[in-house]
Amino acid sequence: MECLICKNKGEKSFFCKVRLLEKPVHNLISCPSCGVLFFEPPPSLVELEEFYSNSYYDFDKYKDEHSGRLLGRKLRKHSKEGRFLDIGCSTGHFLKGVKDSSGWQVFGTEFSKSAVTYAKENLGLEVCHGDIKAAGYPKNYFSHIRMNHVLEHVADPSAFLTEIYRTLKPAGTFCKIR
Ligand SMILES: [Zn+2]
């Protein structure tokens, strides 16, 4: 199996057994070339959905919304309008903070179906279930894209970053903004 990060095709070494849920158990294997660790076999969509659904509601939504407002103000300084995407937006409180303080259009993607439902129904946000590819955003669409604690959960990080690059405007920013 080819390493998803460095494309090395060499023998991968066993690191330990891991599991997201009670079952199934996966092997965590490491690439001899770049040292990245990954699941073998990769978790199924059903497993991911169940795993993320259970871990989403024990956070401080006000703190999240406040952090969103701080970013929203920065975005507004850059431009009076734009499109902002939060990848892995959870229940959407950060996204709501950005929306309220920036005046920008805001979008989110999220793996947990229950979190997507919460964000839509309680906060009136436009959130897509699944990853950024599943959302099918147009090319050169976003002015700023943010993600936090996401890349380490992604099965194919290179393809994921390529999709982010495709949907970002040529002068758009990703993660860091002054
Ligand atoms: Zn590698």
Summary tags:
three-stranded antiparallel sheet, 35% helix, 2 domains, globular, Rossmann fold, binds zinc ion, single chain, alpha/beta, 178 residues, five-stranded parallel sheet
Short précis:
This protein is α/β, with parallel strands linked by helices. Helices cover 35% and strands 24% of the residues. The chain contains six helices and eight strands.
Beta content: 15-25%
Q: Helix and strand string, N-terminal first?
A: EEEHHEHEHEHEHE
What is the level 1 CATH name of the largest domain? Alpha Beta
Shape summary: globular
Fill in the CATH topology of the largest domain.
Answer: Rossmann fold
Q: Considering the protein shown, what is the CATH homologous superfamily of the largest domain?
A: Vaccinia Virus protein VP39
Strands of the biggest beta sheet: in what spatial order? 6-5-4-7-8
Radius of gyration: 18 Å
Biggest sheet architecture: 5 strands, parallel
> How many beta-strand elements?
8
Bound ions, cofactors and other small molecules, one mention each: zinc ion
What is the CA-CA span between the terminal residues?
A: 40 Å
Oligomerization state: single chain
**Which blocks of ≥5 consecutive residues have pLDDT under 50?**
none
Number of self-contained structural domains: 2
Structural class by secondary-structure content: alpha/beta
Mean pLDDT: 90
The helix content, as a percent range, equals 25-40%
Number of alpha- plus pi-helical segments:
6
CATH architectural group of the largest domain: 3-Layer(aba) Sandwich
